[in-house]
Amino acid sequence: MVQDVLTIAWKFMRRRKFATAIKLLEAREETYEGNFEYYILLGISCLYVGDIGSAVTYFQRARQIKLNDTRLLLGQAAIFLRRGDTDRALQYYMEIKDIDPGNKTAANAIEFIRTRGDYDTICRWVDTGRIEQFYPPLGINPEKVMTFVIPAVCFVAGVVLVLALFSHKKNFYKGERRDLTELTLSSEEKNNAQEKDLSGQTYGFILNDKQISSAYTSAVDYFQSRRDNAAQVEINRILNSNASVSIKQKARVLMSYLEEPTFDTLTDNPSYSAVEAEPALYLDAWVSWGGKVTNAILNENGTYSCQLLVGYESGEVVEGIVNVRFASAPNIMPDQPVKILGKICSEDKKIYLQGKAIYQSIKDGLK
Predict the structure, then answer these.
(1) Tens of pLDDT along 239-292?
(2) DSSP output for 288-326
(3) Which of 55, 96, 199, 285 could be bridged to 106 by S-S, CB 3.0 to 4.6 A?
């Protein structure tokens, strides 16, 4: 039985294959122009992959057609919640409660805002993905249901078999970390990798089809080799380029699989000079920079901020100065060298580090 695109896209969404759903829907833009269900499905998919700008656009188009849809209101409320605008989010959640008093998602979100809705907690939930529990619900993933149906013995045997096969087969898109088959670039995407309409847009990098495909291929290679920082750089190169929308969507999905490192697991640690030269390439990458802290401040909400004099461990040369923020006060001795593990972030076009951990040796200095 032939099914329409909206039905097929919804099935992909329930299986959490959002990039596939987005690609399928965007290819039918002319057919479904002015269709509420079309815009709401695209908005929800973009929200789940972290493309908030596109989600806002599609939700606004949907709102022009229908106002009182709980999925729409939940999506818009989630966007305000992600931004820390809890007052606006509460307005939407209360509107949902008026329409659907038994809506559990809205009730849980209201309780979260009431008990834990500080900005720091919200940022952490966004970073870890826990915030998705307040997104428009998708129902149970059919693929996960099947894993419970399969007997445990067969499941274990299957896992062992798959691992055995993968140890001998070096498939480009199937590595030790995750099966990225759904993120494979199609022949059409490779041959038409550039955005066709460049009018009115500014890009940090203008790349040809081959360069875009090469950057994407490198990102996947680095990911499978557990070089997440190197993968992040290639993802940023794509996101700041004239790459097509579908390739950027897949790059964002790949980015969501990258993991937070520790001092021991961090690879491809960029230098301060490299980040300063091309900050857009290193946004969301992780660094381990040593130096000394100055201008430390413990804020009223418990957060901690300081400036790191990068490279100043010996007290001789300062490579640069970068602002650092911690969610809570770390145990830093300001007169001693320190190494900080942090994520490169940007605010008002200036980079700063969102600190995760420190290492400091009081007796022997920095190792």
Answers:
(1) 999 999 999 999 999 999 999 999 999 999 999 999 999 999 999 999 999 999
(2) EEEEEEEEEEE-TTS-EEEEEEET-TTSS---EEEEEEE
(3) 96
